[in-house]
Amino acid sequence: MKTDATHMTDATDATSATPARAAAPITARALAVEGAFVFTPQVHRDERGIFTSPLQGEEFARTVGHPLPVVQTNHNRSARGVLRGVHFTTTPPGQAKYVHCAAGRAQDFVVDLRLGSPTFGAWDTVAMDTVSFRSIYLPVGVGHAFVALEDDTVMSYLVSSPYRPGLEQSLDPFDAELALPWPKELALTLSERDTHAVSLAEARRRGMLPRYEDCLKVTAGYA
Question: How confident is the model at residue 1 (pLDDT cuts 50, 70, 90)?
């Protein structure tokens, strides 16, 4: 089950007299994974460059049903063809993520790994770049992966819990059960961890996957 979000219309490229610090409107769309959304901000362009607001807290809370409790920001830089994922955090404590592309281009994937979720096993994909400045919200228990389509692609994350290496998990991004459509024209580069990651079925057998009800309990604390 999937919805290819790459067909979405880019944000309006409008020259605006709006002051540089004013928040720009933003639109939201639900993804095929329950509780996951893609947000597309308006981008203001003039002779100086651009201004946009990838995260707008009030609209986020209206859409998702709770605020985003940011306790840490992360970013990584990747060469063309670098594939990271499928990553998720042991729940509890779990980790929600708000992800956007700050430089370059990437194809981003969200995968529902929550046992008992109405969309368990479903995935969706979104084109991320610095033209649309789309962002993705991944609720607790949802897996994340992306492939960089250009050198020096920078992905930025706002996350709801601090990074703890012992709680970070990885699934095989080439698992036939998931069948994620990675670009065939790229020579892909993976970390040792991701290269040797287990399949979805094996993760389930080992008890690695989060339970949907536990994810909802963690999320209830964000209200």
Answer: low
Beta strands in 59-141 (DSSP E): 72-78, 83-89, 97-103, 105-112, 123-129, 135-138
For 147-176, what is each residue's pLDDT tens digit? 999 999 999 999 999 999 999 999 999 999
Place of tokens 């009030």: 58
The domains of the chain, with CATH numbers, are: 23-220 (2.60.120.10)
Tokens coding 15: 């020259």
Of 134, 140, 164, the residue nearest 72 (C-alpha): 164
Question: Cβ distance 81 to 147 under 8 Å?
Answer: yes
Residues with catalytic function: 87, 157
Nearest-angstrom CA–CA distance, 50 and 3: 30
How much is the pTM? 0.88
